[in-house]
Specification:
single chain; mainly alpha; about 75% helix; pyrimidine nucleotide-sugar transmembrane transporter activity; UDP-N-acetylglucosamine transporter ROCK1 (CMP-sialic acid transporter 5) (CMP-SA-Tr 5) (CMP-Sia-Tr 5) (Protein REPRESSOR OF CYTOKININ DEFICIENCY 1); globular
Length: about 375
Amino acid sequence: MVAEVDAAGWPGFAILLRRTGMKMPSWKIRMAESGSLLRSMAQGHFVCLVLLAAQFGLQPLLAKRLLPKGAFASVILLSSNAMKILISAAVLLLGSNREQLKELARSWTFRDSTLKAGLPSALFAGQGWLIQVGQTHLDSLTFNLLNQTKTLSAALICYLMLGRRQSLMQCFALFLLFLSALLLAKKKATPVTPMEDLARDDHFWLGVVPVLCAVLSSGLTAALTQRALKGSEGRNSWLYSMEISIWGSFFLICGQLIQHAALEGTLSREGGWLATNFQGWSAQCILPISTQACGGILVGLVTKYSDAVKKGFALVAGIVLTTVSQAMLEDTPLTSRHLLAAVLVAVSTVLHSTFPPQPQLQKSKTI
C-alpha cells in the first residue's frame, strides 16, 4: 500500500525527531512544523529519491536472500502489515498533538472505514499474495520489470474511474511498457529437457502469471485508494494506511484460518499452525520485511513532495541497480531479452513522467 503523506506527514516526522531527542536544525523543524516541506527539504528530498531507488532495486534480492525458502506469502504479508501499522502509529501519535488526535477519533466511524478501506484492503491482500508467489519463482530483474507494468493498469483504470487523461507521449510510453511485458512473458521456443520444461512452466505459471494478475488488480486498488483519499477531506493518510493494513491483515488471517481448518490433521502432527508458518524464520528476516513496509512511505514522500519526473528517474535507477545486483550476486544470467526489456521500461518510465497531459484551456466567453 502506497501511504501518501498529508499535512500531518513530514511535519510529524520533524516533531517525532525532536521528541525522541534526535538532533535536527531548528530552522528545519520550524519550517517542517509549518507544513513547508518543499522548502525544508530543498536539499533533503534527494536523499528520499536515493532511498527509493535503493529500496525498489534491492527489495527482490533481499527477499530472495534473507527470507526462508518456501515461506508462506500470507505470513510475509502479515509481518509487513504489522510493520506498517507500527510505523504509521508512531508517526501519527508522536507527530500530532492531543487535539488533532481527538479530532481524528471523533471523525472516525466503522462504517466509513469499512466502505473506504475494506474493499481496497481485500484487493491489496490478494495482490500482495500474488506478488509474493510470483517473486519466489522469478529472478529479481524480471520481477521488477513486470511489476513496473502496473503503470499501464493504473492509467487505464484511473481513466475509466477518475477520468484522468493520458497525453500522446504517455500513450506511447504505455505501449513500450506493454512490449516489455510481452518480451518477459514470452516462452522460449528452443527444445529443452523434461526437467527444464517443468522449470520453465513453473517460471511462467507460478512466476509471470501471478505478477501480471497482481499488476492488473493494482490499477483498481490505486483508483479506489485515490478516490477514498480525495473524497474524504481532511482524512489523515497515516490513519488510512493503518486501516488498510489492519483490514488486509484481517482478510489474510481469515484465509489462514480456513487453510488451517482444511489441513488441521497435517499441521497438528508438524507442530501446530504457528510453528509451521514461521518455520525457518530468523532475525535477518526483519530487514526485507522492514524495507518492504518503508517502500510505500518513501513512494508517498517522493510523490507528494518531489515531482513525477524525479520519481521516474529514481525508479529507472532502481531498475539499473536490480540489473547490476542480479549480474553480480544471482546465479540467473542476464539475457538480451532482459536487457531490451529493461531499456524499454526505463524509456517508458521517463517518457510517462516527463510528458503529462496539458490542462485543457477553457474558452473564454465573450460578452
